[in-house]
Amino acid sequence: MVSSNLADDYTFVNSDGVLNKSQIVEFTVSGCEVKSYSLDNLKFVMLNKDSALVTYTAMQDTVCNGKTFPNKSNSSAVYVMRGGKWLSAMHMETAATN
User: Fold this and answer.
1) Within the chain, what is the greatest distance between any pair of CA atoms?
2) N or C: which end of the chain has fewer CB within 10 A?
3) What percentage of the chain reaches a pLDDT higher than 90?
């Protein structure tokens, strides 16, 4: 389940606003269909021994609760090591214009 990969203080940001962990879990389990999803231009930077920044371009064919997501987006995510497991602490995506 998606919630087991998210930190308790997880934050999601896109053009619609800011969501916390419980809001994003509720949103994704209430009706998302992912027909395709792929990543390109993946870059990974260790910020310190317990945190990392990942940036990438995502291409997707996704509809959640009747809303179509951008086909191409530029994204970033911060992962943190907690309890011996890498967890997503923040994710941000912006529709790509090129």
Assistant:
1) 40
2) C
3) 59
Mean pLDDT of the chain: 90
Q: How many residues does the chain have?
A: 98
Q: DSSP labels for 14-77? A: ETTEEEEHHHHHHHHHTTEEEEEEEEEEEEEEEEETTEEEEEEEEEEEEEETTEEPPSEEEEEE
Is the pLDDT assigned to residue 1 strictly greater than 60? no
CA gap 4, 33 in Å, rounded: 20
Contact partners, residue 57, CB within 8 Å, separation at least 6: 39, 40, 41, 72, 73, 74, 75, 96
